[in-house]
Write a structure and sequence with these properties.
single chain, about 450 residues, alpha+beta, Outer membrane efflux proteins (OEP), two-stranded parallel ribbon
């Protein structure tokens, strides 16, 4: 019985342990790392890279000799006859003679090898360029997902602080309500002032409830961007204040070519050039060598064992192929990729202008956000001092509820402004790094 009880306790503990949701403690970098590891879209893009890599390998093997084997067995139900003129075989008149056998088999081994084919090397270059383009597209997806996760992480931190601020406001309004309730019971406060304090407290509870709902939505969205289970508990180890420092210094010399948009356009331009080169080379002749070795069986009976019925033959040769009508088609193809190359060059110029402006704008916003954060921090400290003074005067009866409420609202506003300024600075910092292609 004792062993049965111990076993039951162990089973219950195991079930409870399995029922406990997973818990993750995440810094912003760990959140990004988990997201990049879990996202199915990134895993899918890796298949594109694998396909492109496979194409490179396949194109390289185009230079390998083509070796093939073949075999056939023919049964002649009615054998072909050849007319022999009179006198050839001592015959007085022309006669039809069958020179074939009922059974005929040929087994061959053939080889074909390119000696000169200028387009094959260009084709390998095209597939390599496509591989680099797929890698760059994957890098672009990683950058986008990384920034998406970071923004979601910062939004959770912001929503969490807003909830804490709302809870502090709620606690303060609860305290005001208690003080007003005491003052009203002793006849030192008007009923209307007491009811206002009560209403302010109820409104503060509603505000807190709404912000808690927004916080939960923000947490769910962060889990979604990381592709983790909704029931997983996450604990964010970073804070807005810790992420806000040190200050980011704007770079004087910026390499615009590091942006993935530029790299992709450059690879597309390289593809256009290779396509033109490939079309031109495909107009050139190709040279290949070929060889064949065959064994032929001929007999009126299907008896492969007789060596006298087998006859070997072989040959070797050189083949020259000169395209003629293909010149017209290839000229149109060359013209097509010349047009596309010019188009890509224009897109490159415009993208450079766009990125330069984006970096400049992101730098200005970053400086503005830093300045706003410092100013709102000073205002927040000052409003806190004013509030503490007003609160002491209110408790002593030197200030009425309206004055305290005005100070409370001012404190709440400056507190929200400061938290929002820190968040705006971090978002501006993230956008600046994104503009640099990081």
């Amino acid at each position: 019985m004792k062993h049965l009880i111990i076993t039951l306790i162990f089973v219950i503990l195991t079930i409870v342990a399995q029922a406990q949701p997973d818990t993750l403690r995440l810094s912003v970098e760990q959140a990004v790392e988990n997201g990049l590891k879990n996202r199915f879209d990134l895993k899918a893009s890796q298949y594109n890279i694998s396909v492109a890599q496979n194409q490179v390998t396949e194109d390289r093997k185009q230079w390998l000799p083509e070796i093939s084997g073949s075999g056939n067995l023919t049964y002649n139900t009615q054998m072909e006859k050849t007319v022999v003129p009179a006198g050839v075989l001592g015959n007085d008149a022309p006669m039809a003679v069958s020179l074939s056998t009922k059974y005929n088999s040929v087994y061959s081994l053939s080889l074909n090898q390119f000696v000169f084919n200028p387009s094959l090397s260009v084709q390998t270059g095209l597939s390599k360029n496509e591989l680099e383009l797929e890698k760059e597209k994957t890098r672009a997806s990683k950058i986008e997902i990384k920034n998406q996760i970071k923004e979601a992480y910062l939004n959770v931190l912001l929503k969490n602080l807003q909830v804490k601020m709302a809870e502090n406001d709620q606690n303060r309004y609860r305290e005001y309500k208690k003080l007003a309730e005491g003052g009203y019971s002793y006849g030192k406060m008007l009923e209307n002032d007491y009811l206002r304090a009560k209403l302010d407290y109820e409104n503060a509870k509603v505000t807190t409830q709404k912000l808690v709902q927004n916080y939960k939505l923000a947490v769910n969205y962060l889990k979604y961007t990381m592709n983790i289970k909704p029931e997983t508990l996450i604990i964010l180890t970073d804070s807005l204040s810790s992420l806000a420092g040190p200050e980011v210094r704007l770079q004087n010399q910026i390499n615009i070519d590091n942006r993935t948009e530029m790299k992709q356009l450059q690879l597309e331009q390289q593809n256009d050039k290779l396509q033109i080169k490939n079309a031109r080379r495909s107009k050139l002749p190709t040279v290949s060598i070929f060889a064949n070795y065959s064994q032929e069986f001929q007999n009126n009976h299907l008896h492969y064992g007789g060596k006298q019925y087998w006859n070997p033959y072989s040959y070797i040769g050189v083949k020259l192929s000169v395209p003629v009508s293909a010149h017209f088609r290839k000229n149109n193809r060359i013209r097509k990729y010349h047009i596309l190359s010019e188009q890509t060059a224009m897109q490159l110029q415009q993208t450079k202008t766009d990125i330069s402006f984006e970096i400049e704008k992101a730098g200005i916003k970053l400086n503005n956000a830093l300045r706003n954060m410092k100013i709102t921090h000073k205002n927040y400290k000052l409003s806190g001092q004013i509030y503490e003074n007003q609160k002491q005067q209110y408790q002593l009866g030197g200030v009425n509820y309206d004055h305290l409420l005005d100070t409370e609202k001012s404190l709440n506003t400056t507190e929200q402004n400061y938290i929002q300024a820190v968040y705006d600075y971090l978002i501006a910092k993230l956008n600046y790094e994104k503009a640099l292609g990081e």
